[in-house]
Amino acid sequence: MLRRANAPTMLVSKRMSRSLQKPRDLKQPMRLDVDVRTDWPQVVVALAGIASLLLVAAGLFYTNQANRKQQDASRAQQDLAERGQVTERFSAAVDQLGQEGSDKIALRLGAIYALRRLMDDSPDDAPNIMAVLSAFIRIHSPSVKGRHPANSALYRSPEPAPLDVRTAIQQSIRRANANLTSSGYLDLDGSLISLPNEDLSRADLTATTFQKANLAGANLSMSSLVFTRLPGADLSGSNLAGANLRNANLSNANLHGAGLSYVVVLDSKVGPESFWVRTNIENADLFGADITGTDLSLVSGLTGDQLACSKIDKFTKLPVGISIPAVSAEECKRRAN
Questions:
Q1: Which of 43, 150, 275, 302 could be joined to 254 by an S-S link, Cβ 3.0–4.6 Å?
Q2: Are the CB atoms for 174 and 205 separated by under 8 Å?
């Protein structure tokens, strides 16, 4: 005889058993018995946590403000200390620069290099430093008064400038981060500058006065000569290829045998160029000057006779109305002698 297996039993609460035994009225909404008692200790803990976070945030904010003020004060003190160092370096260099005598030339050279370094370190002081170096150069250079221009038969080449003067000029025109709107110009007005065969390539000589200067054989390639005054200067045999001569004054200058040619941009290879916009070359001696490919169409004071024995080609541009007289090679050789 087989025994029936016992059916599984299910434990049911009294409330559920009563609800199961009693049929529910479908018209009545179902009610859920939920215990919504407030747990006040947990609420207090949560509020305390929020308050702690707010206090921490406020503390961080005020600490950050205090640190920022302290950093600003430290930065101001550091700037003040740096300005003091700049003043000390400037005063020491000027004192050394004023040491006279041939036995003090090492001190003067050290002062010049120190001032150049100071210009690089403190661009705001560059105008004052340029003024000091300009004054030093003028004091130690002869005057142009009574000197004949370079295109005159009475012209005599002045002696080359001494080493300290040449160094002061070189360091002034090769300063780093030169911005002429704020760093000043080299003021040599009234001084006779003699820098024969000097390397002045890529130099910044903007608005500098080289009246009757001796720059024979100098390398001025790729230099900035914008608004530079060179009346009566000796530029014979100099290299001006690539120089920017916009608004320069070369009246009565000697450009005998000077290199003024340029190479046009070709196959992405940039060669030197010469810019002669509104340049004054009245009575300038261009005998033997190489101006092949140079644009002279906007210069002033140019005549055909000045170019009679110059080297030009089909790419040379001349002002409207300028014609070059035919001169034989023999005549040019005679004029050279």
A1: 150
A2: no
